[in-house]
Amino acid sequence: MKGVKKQYLPQKLCAACGRPFTWRKKWEKNWEEVKYCSERCKKNKTL
User: Fold this and answer.
1) How many CA atoms lie within 13 A of 5 on its CB side?
2) Whole-angstrom distance, CA of residue 17 vs CA of residue 13
3) Which of 19, 25, 34, 38 is at a distance of 20 to 30 A from 46, taking alpha carbons?
4) Statement: residue 35 has pLDDT above 70
5) Under 8 Å CB-to-CB from 13, ≥6 apart: which residues?
6) How many Å apart are CA 47 and CA 27, to the nearest integer?
7) 13 by DSSP, 3-state: which?
8) How far apart are CA 37 and CA 35, in angstroms?
């Protein structure tokens, strides 16, 4: 994703809060597995 403008980065919806979040460098290797936008949402997920 090097050299890509922020507006063109992939997006997903958070499984907990439903808000859209964009790709981050730290998620580069496991983007397909990322479900939550933050640690807060991950901890407060509804089952």
Assistant:
1) 2
2) 8
3) 25
4) yes
5) 19, 20, 21
6) 24
7) strand
8) 7
d(CA 23, CA 10): 6
Q: What is the pLDDT of residue 45?
A: 76
* pLDDT average, residue stretch 8-27: 94
Three-state secondary-structure class, residue 32: helix
Q: Token match 């980065």: residue? A: 9
Q: Which amino acid is at 14?
A: C
Report in angstroms the alpha-carbon separations of 46 from 5, 15, 18, 36: 33, 9, 12, 12
